[in-house]
Specification:
Number of strands: 13
Number of helices: 14
Oligomer: single chain
CATH architecture of the largest domain: 3-Layer(aba) Sandwich
CATH class of the largest domain: Alpha Beta
Number of domains: 3
Shape: flat
Strand content: 15-25%
Radius of gyration: 29 Å
CATH superfamily of the largest domain: P-loop containing nucleotide triphosphate hydrolases
Structural class: alpha/beta
Order of helices and strands: EEHEEEEHEHHHHHHEHEEHEEEHHHH
Helix content: 40-55%
Amino acid sequence: MEPASHGPEQDTIAAIATPFGEGAIAILRLSGPQSIPIAAGIFRSRLPFASLAPRAQRLGRIIDAAQVLDQVILSLHPAPASYTGEDMVELHCHGGILLTRRILDLLLARGARLAEPGEFTRRAFLNGKMDLTQAEAVMDLIRAQTDLALRAASGQLEGRLGRHIQSLRQALLSILAHIEAHIDFPDEDIDPATNTALLARIDSLRAEVARLLATADQGRILREGLNTVIFGPPNSGKSSLLNRLLGFERAIVSPIPGTTRDTVEEVVNLRGIPVRLIDTAGIRPSTDDLENAGIQRTRHVLARAALILQIADATLPPPRHDDLPPHTRALLLLNKCDLPIHPAWSPVQDAIRISCKTGAGFDTLTQAIFDAAMQGRATPDDHLIAINARHQSCLTAASTSLDAARQSLAQNLSPEFIAIELRAALTAIGEVAGRLDTEELLGEIFSTFCIGK
């Protein structure tokens, strides 16, 4: 990747890199051409500043005019061996809110400007220290809610997705070189053997793109959680199911129908998957305006559910579920299986039999939820490649262009038509890793980052 040259990236930026609030230690960062001179102007220690070795830590004091603000630890990270690829300085001070702000104000007064959200990582990308997939993985790593999400983000930060994309680009460039050779020598048609070989290579690329696209749902679930609605008639055990999965009493459990009048939402880690559980009001005829409002909310969340846990009281005959939206993944749960089961359930073989009272069947249930989330493509020990929505859009465009290129080649159309589609696919695949120069897109991506990262 080639570094970009942008005016604002020539500034020296500063930010507090630790969360706002009191703490034992706070970290401030400087990056840019004036980082080291700014630090030298405010840092004092027993040894000369010039003797400080790169990436070594030194104890000293921050001085504002004649006033000592704090005793700190400073480390220098000269370019290019730094996170951003520029000269960087890190200051570790005591974690008081006022103190940290005073030191930041001092850095700004000495010529730095306040960093924008994600600007340190953006500079790392622009200076070729990481590709765009790795830059996006930084925030995935920070926001990971489970070990599986953390491992997926770590793998992407290490460059696993970037290497796949680079491999795709190299293979596509090789195919394009063959096609363009025939454009340069129009008197020589593509012979049948070469045509067949090129078709096979394009098919291999299409299959690899399709495999990456198949991880989009996994990526969305790992980043946002599996939107899971607990649905069933009153008194079937919906709130008891929520409490059992959470491991604590979150929802009120009562034999009185209509107790749950609003949706109750919590996130739980089930075998590495963040599952967003939504307990709903039971749907039944009611004259109570408040209960009817809860029932309307139930219908709304059902329409947006990625998975429905359809729970029923196994001691009663099967209820009607006319309110379930069509084409939605659902697991049928028979609750109260510690009691005699109603004979009408005997023919039902695909239900998961559980007891919210005793916990029976919950290992089977959590495995079924995991399988529904990952669609059988992974186990908790896999190192996942899980693309995000931006990657999905780029790869979908690449897949469309590859399909068109294959069709043109199969129909023996002019090599120019084939090359146009292959170039479009090459551009779309390159955009995944950041081979682009679109300020608007970069601004959108990095605006979601923390300030100081």
